[in-house]
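TEACHING EXERCISE
Course module: macromolecular assemblies
Task: Read the component lines below, then compare them to the predicted structure of the full complex.
Student: A.B.
Group: 4
Components provided:
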Amino acid sequence: MTNLLDIKELVSTCLQCGTCTASCPNSFAMDITPRKLWRLVLMDRTEDVFNSTTFALCSTCYYCTLRCPRGLELTTAMSMLKAAAAKENIPKYRVSAHFYSSFMESVRRHGRVRETEFLTLYFMAMKNPLLPMKITPLGIRLLKKNKVKFEMPSKPGTGNLTRLFEKVSQMEEDK
Amino acid sequence: MTEISSDALVVGGGISGIRSALDLAERGFSITLIEKEGYTGGMPAKLDHQFPTNGCGICRMLPMAERDSSEQFCLRRGLFHDRINVLLSTTLEELEGEAGGYKATLKRKNTFIDPGRCIGCGECARVCPVNALDEFNAGLCDRKAVFLPSPHAIPNTYVIDPDLCNLCSECVSVCPTSAITLPEDRKKEFSILVVDDELIVRDSLKEMFEFEGFSVSAAGSGQEALDLLEEGEFSLMLLDIKMPGMEGTEVLKRAKEKDTDLSVIMMTAYATVESAVETLKVGAHEYIVKPFDDEELIKMVYSVFNTMRTDDRETVELQTGAVILSCGTSYYTPDNEMDTFGWNTYPDVVTSIEFERILSGTGPFSGELKRPSDGGKPQKIAWLQCVGSRNLQTESEYCSSVCCMYALKEAMLVKNKFGSDIETTIYYMDMRCFVKDFERYRKDAEDCGVILKRARPHSVTLEQNGSLCVRISEASASLNEEHFDMVVLSVGQRPAFQTAELAEITGVELNEFGFPKDGIFENDGKKGVFVSGSFSGLKDISETMLYSSSASLRAAQVMKLPEKGMEPGRTGGNGTNQATARDVSMEEPVTAAVLCKCPSDSPEKAGFVESFCTTHPLIDDFSSVDGLCTAEGWNLLLETIKEKEFNRVLIFACLPCLFKGKLAELSEFTGLSECYLDFVDVSEMPEDLIEFQINTAVSKIRQARVPATRAVSVSKRVLVIGGGIAGMNAALSCSQAGIETVLVEKESELGGNLSWLHSNIDGTDFTDILEATKKEVEKNPLISVMKDSFVADTSGETGNFITIVRSDDQGDGETGHTIRHGAAVIATGSNEADVEEYRIGEHDAIMTTREYEEKKENGELNQDDLKTVVMIQCVQSRNMDRQYCSRVCCSSSIKQALALKDANPDKEIYILYRDIMTYGFSETYYKQAREKGIIFIRYTPDRPPRLDIKDDKVSVTVYESILESDIEIKTDALILASGMKPAPADELAEMFNIKQDDYGFILQGDVKWRPCDTTMDGIFVCGTAAGPRNVHESIASAQAAAQRALRIAGRDTLASSRITAQIKESLCSLCERCIDACPYSARMVDYDRRKIHINPALCQGCGSCAAVCPNSASYVSNLADQQFFNIIEAAV
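Instructor-supplied answer key:
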């Protein structure tokens, strides 16, 4: 399991005062509160941390970071947990991981996201034939409002960010 | 060679300054006390209530011995002492010299109102058109440019704020005594040159400043400006940067070459801000970015104008031996962008200081509880703790130490004064009631219905219906939204204003947060500048008192001991020496009455008083004088009564006339003792009450007798009981003042608890301090150390005690040493509390803090073997037997945990706590401990940690409230933070006739205001004998106790005051009722002579004895029975 050392260091001075929890606009949907999440991180309960989806629900509004009396960068810590979960292929985090990677794949190809391609990639990664059906009603609604465009593939090479992506992953490995 | 002066300068007239000044004055030094505001008393002058009494006790600082040297007035009204010269509205500007001989330059603000003429009628404020925020009321209401600095000060002299005054001179015309001389209009002499290439800018600025009253010239180009500068004198130039021809920067350079004193404000467009910043380096005063707000520029110009004018201040030079800095602290203003509590946005969100003013009788609502927004009575009030404390976002890593207690107090006051139906909730992180009696106070608060919630609200929002909403998350509970009518922010402490400037002037060192260091450990004896009271930060009233006395003691060490002022007879302030005063008690009373015709009183009343007096059979003469409170009126009074034949004087005037100095002056002038003179306040009274007042006063002075003042000679020696670090420091402090000291220690070695305690949390090494102190004590010729000894018996009273000290090896038949001493300091200290819980003794791994320290020191315990360590806090503290917090255990556990982690970061350390009591700056170590990975788990008393010993391994199970589950920790060591219990002192307390609290600690004379006094004057207490303290605080308290003891033992005689109780022995039946009734223990039975003995130095003249005496044998001088009967008769 991923070593949480970096994240632990980031939140080490946490007082468990609960300001983050009270601040969080998404805490109603979380299975454990942010405060409990940090407590688990500090107590090395890695398994419990990744059994929860709390960090996946962080919408990076930065309220907690702004209000934490210890000045902890909690939003950064949430992102680090997301990254760790994606890397480790944590089952509970599978949906989010595929979602993000499909999104980024589209960006890599074109330098921007193409919704139809992004969703196609996502459905393929999820390997669940029922999933497209599930979001069909939403798709239709969006289509009606002209929010989704069916685009032709652009010229190969236009806006391609492969080199940038390679460089970044190289840098991440070196670190 | 510097000439040593015996005078000390005290900077800051708050309670710490008053304490330091009174301490030194009582020891005979002369003090100059300066205060930047227009009133003394500092922050407590604004507070009507202090915990734990929920009343005000500031007067308890007044001297109890030699009372007559100081006015027995409420200290919120003012400080009056013969040897203290108070300079208000004065600041320290420069300091030269060294310890023993400083030259201080003071700046005294001109108030433009002659205090010798002002009668405090307030007409000026009524007509003043300028409104400004009232700082005394924390900005909750307005005041005028002419105002009363404090609502209760005596004398109540108005002052003018020259920065606000618009010189309209309305006040001058209404002042009945012509006391106001307005500042001269210097604006015409202040000429401004406006340089801008745009005509419209030039003209509008010219018009604007001419309207303000300045003389203004204008130039359209750089060259034109330089020509004008050549021709005439200018004080200020407003200079545009971007101009065709010559640029502003060039004009500035040339202008500065010609006239270096010229002030220049640069005006710049956004594009040239960088070059504007550059101009500051070549002599521009300030810059402003176009387009600017007119008000902003006007403010800038006024600030230049105000620094250049000199008529608003005068410079005073002073020779002084030592300087005591007692500037107090300021409080956090929650207007930072990181503050999301809505202060200054929602009117019903107030700071605790504002709330104190709302509760105050002299506050904006006259003591009614009202919401600032609509004046309605709030039904639900919330307190938010740690606003501007324990928060990195507001640059305050420390705990402010006082806020938990004042929040509890305010909540309790609301409940008690305004109705228990008002809901009060305090949101806190750790409730820090770390002082001995505070835990009980917290319990009282909870009992009376104050709700405490451990949660930290992140912000306050205003709901549609006008209520204030906080969103919180308690440990395990889900989110809650709670609604209130009013929110109080418990704001933390900050360094006093201008601390940095003062540090620069005086060379005092500051810590990382900008608070001055108190110098208790670093005292090298060379510096003559001392930091007193809460100036060093984060102290409550009681600690402020300790650290103020400690600073004044150290200051006295660098000054020459005064010779004058210590001799008997100079009881000060009595005006006429009582010995030379005319005894007129046998003469036929001839009474003169003088009425002050106050311009603010109605002429009808004056007429009534006159007709009543002239027809009064017992008043022989009547005259009236205008404005007695003015210097002119006073001289007129002296002249009026000079020509007359009389031996009693009655004066009708209002309060500001009544203070000490006036009566003394009159006594000196007439040669009559003060008891034949009286003031009667007849202002704002109905006629029948005036008759009543006059009748009683006449009766009182007719029968008065000059009381005999008696002096008690003093045994100039101090007895210190207990040879720990506190006792040794107390002994050293006394010996440094040249007073012989006897130090009694029951063990064979000095050192007390420091023999096993080797360092504190900030790394101070006690081994060195202990060795140095021991050596100094043992080689000091004035200190005789008696080891293996104990106090066997004692008798006597303040100034003269006789104590028998016996040593352990003496047989019962031997008598022991007899010691005569004037005062005693009890420093019997404390021990580690006995632990019975957590299966102590059953396993080697389970030990107390002290056992751990000892085992570590003697090598019994190898630190490397400890992979996991668990510490449990509050083991013998905050329980049913010991309701107090032991104060030091949290810091000491964190100290040990940090040491273990430093040795090996892989060790797992758990601290199980209830509330972490790292008050003050030690909060930074708590943060450090968390940073290093020490796990803190909170437990509650109803779910304490459980212990299991299996296979010779100790394991602790504790419920973790955030994870909502039990956690089991297998540990190599279990350290129990065992808390403090007082060393047995029951016998000692009984012998000295002093009281102890429920736990056996010595009871303090007053927990807040006299923390080193016991219930008996002449006996003082320091160190942990009075309650849990750390080493730093113990040393400060030892110095404070020594200072208190030296007031008595440092002088030859103790004078009684004029009004004391006396006894007619022929009537006394020795029933001893008066002995129980005396609150000051000033009486005892002398069985040998079969009479009651009164110690005149202790007696405060309260009259309790006279009231209980069945035979009228006991009476108070100048209030004898017959005299009183006459007064009553006159009254009815």
